Here is the input.
Amino acid sequence: MTSSVRPFAPVIETDRLVLRGARKDDLESCHAIWSDPEYVRPMGGLPTTREESWTRLILCAGLWPLLGYGFWLIQERVSGRVIGDVGAMLREREMTPPLGSDPEIGWGLAPSVQRRGLALEAVSAALRWLDESAGLSRQVCVIDPENTRSISLAAKVGFEEIGLAVSGGGSVLQFQRRRPQ
Amino acid sequence: MWQRLQRYAGSWVLLGHGFWAIEDRASGRLVGEIGLMDAKRDIDPSFGDDRELGWALLPEAHGKGYASEALASVLAWEKQTFDAPCVVALIDPDNAPSIRLAQKFGFSERARSVYKGIPTIQFERRSAR
Here is the structure.
């Protein structure tokens, strides 16, 4: 680790987006996204209850003081609306073969704002910050094999496919990315 | 385990309150945890705006008055920091030592609930005003 641990997510601005740390009053907007069956379908998860959305919001904030990186909420610049989240996390996922202990990159956007290149904009900005400031030499990500849009986004930001793995009874694709020199 | 630490840290960042690790001063050993949380539990009756106190000690640290010592400090901290009219606690009906401890600190039963399939008692402590 070259970075010193920072308690809060830094604010990152892109052309159309602001990435910022979670706040407690983000619960309703995040819950609207995370509880949407259309949102969770490509990730193979279940829509969250309000209690689970709250825990997830707290988790978004909670990695920063421990490790100096974590998750951002994605806000649309024009509307100020929260439209998703992106970041790096440590998850002890049960998976065969195992994915190792490197941080896992994750992202998700509300279905209503997809197909506009916003996810690419957000993930690129987050990775740029992580490359420059978090000192992570290798990152991984896990994507449903049928989620072609996320797979193509992962390739665009420098992830290479490792292969198929079994996780929770289903198969997932594992990817890795090394920090550009 | 990461998730749990992450949740604890996130609570401090987002809400300004959360959990502490309890260490035995003499040995420096970690013997438990205590804190003030807002889990927005899907429970009936709902906690409303009341924050929730939680504590747990390792078996080796039971019977030494540690929980009492920790609870007294956290209640004092809560008073100084938030001074909420009411705090709540969920206790297993079979956990007699915790129920006794809560009662000693002015908690009284306010409801019986089932949370995630497990019967539990809601205790509340109203602030002395």
